[in-house]
Structures are given as structure tokens and as C-alpha cells.
Amino acid sequence: MSLTINTNTSAINAAFNLSKNNDMLNKSLNRLSSGKRITKPSDDAGGLAISMKLTSSIARTRAASSNIQNAQSFSSVQDGAMQAAAKIVDRMSELKSLSLDVMKSSQDVGNYNTEFKSLQQQLKSLTVEKFNGVSLFNNNTSSKFGDASTNEVVEVYTSDSGAAGSKVSMHKAMLLGAVTFNMLASASGTPASHSTAAGTTDGNNLTLANSGANAINIDDLGVSFFVTALENVATLRAVNGATSSRLSFSEDHLRLTQTNLTAANSRIMDVDVAEESTNLAKYSILSQASAAMLAQANTAPNTALMLLG
User: Could you say which DSSP state residue 128 is in?
Assistant: First the structure.
């Protein structure tokens, strides 16, 4: 190799290697300090694109899981109200049976009737309860208990795809319809559940959920009406429980999906500390060696002075 002064090829090569090793050293420092394998798009453009989609999916999955928990709360509050309604109807039936005792005077029956009317008001108040401003029950006068076509349904989306994915249908229980009966349903007197305007009677229909002047007397209904009302409320609670169970399984699935998506994103974005710390040590040594060799290469043209002397 010729000895030159104007162009120091060795120094140029040493400077190039020093720059490259410093870049790699800085990349290792950035990765270890951030904990991420991809610190800029050029590190892995395809991996970064996938990670962005996974991150968005994880956020939507987390939101869907939160929505399911809120739906579970709605279901729990709804069931609590129906449980209270069942106790009220049960007490009404007890009062009705007590009023049939031949040992009871008309005054005694009147006392039972006072509590009976008071319970109707309490039952009426349950049918209009709300959860965070959303009504718990379907009290639409056009709705008929037992007719699925008149159910008021609330959709709970159970995937990160929203309306395009899986969902669970929650029914706003028809509590008013469950305690309202068509008096002309059958000649045998067996009550049939039917809807009517809240707190009213229209000549054919009677409801146990009344208030004020609309309250019915304890003598207006037989024991069979209360038995049917309890069965209707039990059916509503069973539907509520089935929906709640399905929501629980959906939430478990979402949590597992979120865990797996997070793990997949981690494999793309998170740095392998053991591997990167090895690279850090490697490029740290190479950078120092490159700097030393650059200094050595810069002194090499001094040999030419010996020839000129």
C-alpha cells in the first residue's frame, strides 16, 4: 500500500467504523433505557405496524371487559329489585291467606287490607327503578309478559369488534307485566299474565303494582293470582341469572384474550435485556477500539516525514 499524505485511507475507514459502532451503541442504550426493541420505525417497520394494531385491539378489549362489568352491575341491581318484589308478593299472599281465617273480624281483615295496599305502592315503586338513569324494567303498556316479541333488549358487545362481533342480549325484565293479570283469561279463574297501564285497572286487568286511589283490595284477588305472580317473577330472575352467567363467561374470555394479545405485543415490542446488554458491551468496546485506531491512523502519515528528512 502506497504511503500518502493527502488521503489517509486508514483514518477514513477507522472513522467510518467508529461512527457505525457509535450508532449501534446508541441504539442499545435507547433500547435498554426505554425497554423497547423498536424505538423508531426504521428498527422494524412491519413489527411496529402489527404492534399498533395489537395495542388498539388490547385497548378495545379492555373497554369491552369494563362494559361487561357494568352490565353485570345492571343485572345485579335488577335481580335485587326482583328479589324484593318476590318478597312483597309473598307477603301479599300471606296476608290474603290470613284474611281468609274465619276467626278474623272485618276489622282484622281491614287491617290486613291496609298493609296490602301499602305493599302495592312499594311494588309499584320497584317497577320504575333505574340504574344510573337507565330503567331496570320494561313497563311499556304494549308489552305482554311471556311474549318474547315485546321484550325490550339491550345489547352488550362482548368483543373488541363491537357490533360486528359477539354480543349478549339483556332483557329489561317485565316486572309490571309479571304481576298484572287478565281477569277474563279463563272461565276457571286461573289468572293469565297480561300487561296494563301502570297502576290502573281497565275492567279486565288487575295489577298488584298500584298506588294511591288505584290500589285494589285484598278481596279482589284469589290466592292463585299470587302464586302465578311469584312464578312469573321467578321466571324473570331465572332469565336474569342465565344472562348474568353468560356475561361472566364472556368476561373470562375477554380477560384471557387481553392477556394473550398483550403477550403477543410484548414479543414484538419489548427488548430482550440479556441480549441487548451483551450488544451494549460489544459496541462499547468496539467504539473505544475504533476511537483508538482512528488516533493511531492519524499518526501514520508522520512516517512520511522520515523520508523527507
Answer: T
